[in-house]
Amino acid sequence: MPALRLLEVKSDEEFTDLIECEWLSYEQPYNGFFQLYCPTTGTGPNARAESMKESTDRQLAWHREDPTSIWLKVVDDDHSSKVVGAAQWNIHHSNPYPNGVEENDAFWWPEGEDRSFASKALEQWHRPREERMSKPHVLLNICFVLPEYRRCGAGSMMVRWGVQKADELKLETFIEAAEPGIPLYLKQGFELVDYHVIDSTLEDPSERWKELKERFPPVRWAFMRRPVMGEANGN
Question: S-S: 173 plus which of 34, 133, 139, 226, CB 3.0-4.6 Å?
Answer without folding.
Answer: 226
